[in-house]
Design goal:
Structural class: alpha/beta
Helix content: 25-40%
Order of helices and strands: EEEEEHHHEHEHHHHHHHH
Number of helices: 12
Shape: globular
Number of domains: 2
CATH class of the largest domain: Alpha Beta
Length: about 280
């Protein structure tokens, strides 16, 4: 049975229900962030909005602004319209971080460009709040992935192309996710080759735009032996670099912009005794 979500009748939205042509076996959360910038380490969330759809048809819609604790640059305000004054009396993100993770517990995630930006920013913010959040077992649906794979445009162009309207609330978190959810429904109606089930959609998005953590960007998987994917030692095993060039790993650990999870992998490599390379005089056994 397809899930129907009634979108409020405003001049910005289509005056019809939004239909997701697949059944939900667990909640699906569309979400969007507005931030002080694009730097995962130094920038902060100023607005978060989500729509949570349950298998029973319940719809929970929330939007909240936060005081980022740092000035909002004019170039960021030019994008989303949020100023320092707008959030001066708002609470910090960490005050609601645990509650947010509880809301997202057991949910799949969806949105526009979330695989490249929003998920990464959310994870960094939660780490700063010392709140654990895992993507393990979650399906991730990215409307930008489908759109770029099929049409290659931004969300405003997606709204015009798929929904026949202007996206007049661009770069407001709630407006973006409402449009993203409507775009997903229209995409699935338009492209018969795009899977119409959650597992298929997740694989479709992952094949074209795989979600990669900072650890994934630096190293291959543990199963593959942790080989450098970037930097001056690209192509070399991390264990070999730890044995032969530990100064490089010490530099990585001290770099101001290095991801904490990357540092943890590097520290483990330095702390793990490595067997010495075989002697050229040692006979083969």
């Amino acid at each position: 049975m397809a899930l129907t979500v009634v979108v409020p009748e405003r001049r910005y939205y289509l005056p019809r229900p939004m239909r997701l042509p697949f059944e939900l076996d667990r909640p699906l959360v569309f979400f969007d962030l507005e931030t002080t910038g694009l730097d995962m380490k130094n920038d902060r969330i100023v607005e978060l909005a989500f729509i949570k759809l349950t298998p029973h048809g319940d719809v929970l819609e929330r939007v909240r602004r936060f005081n980022p604790g740092i000035p909002i640059p004019p170039e960021a305000t030019a994008v989303h319209g949020i100023t320092d004054a707008d959030v001066a009396d708002e609470i910090p993100f960490c005050r609601t971080a645990r509650n947010l993770v509880e809301i997202l517990e057991g949910c799949d995630l969806a949105g526009f460009n979330i695989k490249r930006f929003d998920i990464h920013m959310l994870i960094h913010e939660l780490k700063r709040c010392q709140v654990e959040f895992s993507l393990a077992g979650r399906r991730i649906l990215d409307m930008q992935t489908i759109f770029h794979r099929e049409e290659r445009r931004d969300l405003s162009a997606a709204a015009k192309f798929y929904l026949g309207r202007e996206h007049e609330e661009a770069h407001t978190a709630l407006g973006d996710i409402r449009t993203s959810a409507a775009v997903l429904s229209a995409q699935l109606e338009r492209y018969p080759d795009v899977p119409s089930d959650l597992d298929g959609l997740h694989e479709y998005c992952e094949e074209f735009a795989p979600f990669r953590t900072e650890v994934d960007r630096w190293f291959s998987s543990p199963e593959e032996g942790r080989v450098f994917r970037r930097g001056k030692h690209k192509g070399r095993a991390l264990a070999d670099v730890a044995r032969e060039a530990p100064d490089y790993l010490q530099w990585m650990m001290g770099a101001d912009d290095m991801d904490e999870d990357v540092i943890a992998v590097v520290r483990e490599a330095l702390d793990t005794p490595a067997p010495p390379p075989p002697s050229p005089d040692e006979p083969n056994r």
